[in-house]
Amino acid sequence: MCINCGCAPTEGAHNHHHHDHDHGARTLRIEEDLLAKNDRLAAGNRAQFAAAGVFVLNLVSSPGSGKTTLLERTLRELGTKWRFAVLEGDQQTSLDADRIAAPGVPVRQINTGAGCHLDAHMVGHGVENFDLPGTDLLLIENVGNLVCPASFDLGEDHKVALLSVTEGEDKPLKYPQMFRAAALMIITKTDLLPYVDFDVERCKAFARQVNPKIEILELSCRSGEGLAEWYGWLEEGVKRKQEPRAESQE
Amino acid sequence: MHELSLTQNLVAIAEEHARKAGAVVIRSITLEVGELSGAIPEALEFAFDVCSKGTLAEGAVLTIRRVPGHGRCAVCAAETACHELSAVCPACGALGFELATGTELRLLELEID
Ligand SMILES: Nc1nc2c(ncn2[C@@H]2O[C@H](COP(=O)(O)OP(=O)(O)O)[C@@H](O)[C@H]2O)c(=O)[nH]1
Ligand SMILES: [Mg+2]
Ligand SMILES: [Zn+2]
């Protein structure tokens, strides 16, 4: 059979006359998901993160919703409590990784080139030099884009979708894939609410229309309002992720 | 943008299967694209012309089978079509609608030679 003949891919154009059977036109039933390869790699990442007990978040939003600012603030306030690692995929500014630089926190910038999203393959290589067993929380800042990152599983525990009050409150309806994929929506920049026409309750209702199970937080990195709830949410996730390991070590 | 990487995957998967089967050329590709998958068929077709250049799939006929959105409501038990990615039941309006079809992005079939 040809499957075993070992002809190299580049020789694909030869005619296989050395075989004693005829090929002819055939139909192959495939039924393979277009994202199957990414999903396989993501499952590999996920297994690796689970074994190391790392809680992993994939932060997604439009450009400018406040992902980097939230990372900076979180590292500044919790950086001594937990061991963080950060993967930076946002192309908006190549400075994001520098902004985040905090003492003792490994930060790695992933160059997606023209790519509009991170994928599981990039993340797998991105964490190669991280000490995962020595990490509690891995935060991944995805490329600023509410479309493509929705389809690409990275092996994270949760996608976290940020939406700032300077954007439209109907974004969850306009980008339903993303808000369905996210476990948590964070409404950011709430300090600006007095100056903008953004109906928080409507926004929450829209998000629940596309994803009834979505959790929702509201916060401002400027005023600090709501940050305690975000830190509480993180703590719960970290603890839950480490439980199975703590038990098996007893 | 999104369609470009999806189509690169499509061509890679198609070539892999075709090569394994000893094909020298891929004549046609049948793809299943859900109405609510987020991928736009025209954009996939456009991207296919670009991505298939120089591969076994160059010149292949790309057939896109659209899968309509359809599902069931956990509240009123209606089984109905759905044209939005939403948990709002088109029949009763409750937040209980669960999609069964419409999000597919799948390579179904190849015709090879
Ligand atoms: N007023 C206000 N501005 C903020 C807040 N968080 C971020 N910003 C500003 O929003 C802009 C974009 O933030 P950035 O974190 O770079 O967004 P990213 O593209 O999602 O990483 C910056 O100018 C930030 O200073 C906030 O809570 N309140
Ligand atoms: Mg950023
Ligand atoms: Zn119903």
Short account of what is shown:
The complex is a heterodimer of chains A (250) and B (113). Chain A is of the alpha/beta class and 250 residues long. Chain A is built from 8 helices and 8 strands, in the order E-H-E-H-E-H-E-H-E-E-H-H-E-H-E-H.
Task: Write structural notes for this entry.
The complex is a heterodimer of chains A (250) and B (113). Chain A is an alpha/beta fold. Chain A has a single domain (20-248), classed as P-loop containing nucleotide triphosphate hydrolases (Rossmann fold). Chain A is built from eight helices and eight strands. Chain A has helices at residues 36-52, 67-78, 96-100, 120-126, 171-174, 176-181, 200-210, 227-249; strands spanning 26-33, 55-60, 84-88, 107-109, 137-141, 158-164, 182-188, 215-218. Chain A has a seven-stranded parallel beta sheet, sandwiched between helices. In chain A, α1 runs parallel beside α4. Chain A starts with 25 loop residues before the first strand and ends with a helix. Residues 1-21 of chain A have low confidence and may be disordered. Chain B has a three-stranded mixed beta sheet with strand order 2-1-6, with helices on one face. Chain B is 27% helix and 32% strand. The A-B interface holds A 1-3, 5, 7, 9, 12-16, 19, 23-38, 115-117, 119, 147-148, 150-151, 173, 176-177, 180, 208-212 and B 1-2, 5-6, 9-10, 12-14, 17-24, 27, 38, 56, 84-88, 95-96, 105-113. β1 of chain A pairs antiparallel with β6 (105-112) of chain B, so a sheet runs across the interface. The complex binds guanosine-5'-diphosphate (GDP), magnesium ion and zinc ion (ZN). Guanosine-5'-diphosphate binds at residues 61, 63-69, 90, 92, 144, 188-189, 191-192, 220-222 of chain A. Guanosine-5'-diphosphate (GDP) binds next to α2 of chain A.
